[in-house]
Automatic annotation (TrEMBL):
Residues 212-495 form the SAM-dependent MTase RsmB/NOP-type domain. The lineage of its organism: Bacteria, Bacillati, Actinomycetota, Actinomycetes, Micrococcales. Residues 20-32 have a biased composition (Basic and acidic residues). It comes from Leucobacter manosquensis. It holds the Pfam family NusB. The keyword Ribosomal protein does not apply. S-adenosyl-L-methionine binds at C306, A307, G308, P309, G310, G311, K312, E331, D357, D375. The active site is at C428. This is rRNA small subunit methyltransferase B. One of its GO terms (molecular function) is methyltransferase activity.
Amino acid sequence: MSGTQHGARGRGRSGGARGGRPDRRESAERSEAAISPARLVAYDVLRYVEDREAYANLALPGRIREAGLDTRDAGLATELASGALRWRGRYDRIIELAADREIERIDARTRNVLRLGVHQLLGMRTAPHAAVNESVELQRRVGNRAAAGFVNGVLRSIGRASNEEWDARIAESAAGVDDARAALASHPAWVIRAMQDALRIEGREDELDALLVADNAAPRVNVAILPGAGVTPIEAAERAAEAEVVVSGPSPLGVEIGGGDPARAIAASGARRGFARVQDQGSQLAALALTRARPVQPGERWLDLCAGPGGKTAVLGAEALIGGASVRANEVAAHRAQLVRNSVAGVAGAVDVVSFDGRDDEAYGGERFDRILVDAPCSGLGALRRRPEARWRKQPSDLPGLTRLQAELLQEACAHLAPGGILAYVTCSPHLAETRVTVDRLLRSRSDLVEVDARAVVGEVAREPLDLPGGGLSVQLWPHRHGTDAMFISLIERRAVDS
Ligand SMILES: C[S@@+](CC[C@H](N)C(=O)[O-])C[C@H]1O[C@@H](n2cnc3c(N)ncnc32)[C@H](O)[C@@H]1O
């Protein structure tokens, strides 16, 4: 994203995404004078994320629409909000050093104005005077007017040093190596430790910095061209070349969009309606690991136990249609079960959707299944690229509840796996407690289960040879190495005859 000399100034409309709305006093103040609408939108999104636990990727489009931003200002608002959220750890440390004050001792509104200002100064090519003046103006509109001078002073001080100088100051003032790395890479220290542990068991601890860099880069948009689309990924890319669609990445279904509007690219691809879908290529591979682990026999019954919002269900459905199988898709949250129905509209004949807790018998409808996907609820630490605020919201204390749920879902799923059937356990997290530890515990608890070589399956399915180091049977994908989310995939078979 280029600098912020957009010059477009207009009245920011009040209103909020996901139920968030500025209060009356703030709205009245805003109506006093014009202010850069993109900055107001970005500021609102930061507030909704902090005050209401909103998701930036959901709050942004709503606020952009409400404010009537044009494409250029929408891009600016997105860059401002995403950048300030993603780099919050590093920016807060810089603000602390410049203000000589702990970040918690700066009031919440001023804090967010400063974060947006620092992103313009250090993360974008905004002219310093514009970044400072606009931030001071924003502070006057949305925050404590008396603190406008404080904002001015702190941002001027930050603008006087380069990124390299700030990094040196962060390193000098840090409480140790881990603290410095956490602040510089803008990741919580516990998240870095979890990533480090997962890389270590692959013998690739030296890739940690590359991973942290990849986590801080906005991912390209990937699309799955599902089997049965009427076009292959190569043909889809040729047809949508003007929309910058190219064949790229490890999934045999995947194409990548270089920029622009995904909906336009999908429309141009020539794929049948519902057969081209935005989806990370790690998710595509995870679904294909189950469907292509062995040839499909007509009449097979498959279960997608934790299906919402239905991205992988759509892949299962398309593969099932071709192989003569059928899918039961279960999702505990009713509103997310509806998203699954929408998602599988193109392959509805092969999929029925139900809504139960996956730990209850009703989820299985009295059946035993030939293939089961347990794409378990998890910390989501593998998708930090696309959820800029997630790293600050997750806590280590979230882990025990999640790992218990994962284990319970797995146990129940295995009880409903037909003898000889195969189960894929998938998480969008590389945290060992959610991946290997969970799988190893399951294997120890049941002698009728055996882990299958998921590396061989995924290696066979992938469009290109995959670098999968370490000695185990499961697959850990990584953003820096494979260009995907950090998906974990383990394949588990139930022996044909109970031993
Ligand atoms: C990682 S997401 C699944 C993503 C999905 N497979 C896809 O590719 O679009 C996990 C899902 O599990 C659901 N879930 C959480 N607890 C569950 C439970 N006890 N039983 C069934 N589903 C559950 C969540 O609501 C969430 O939609």
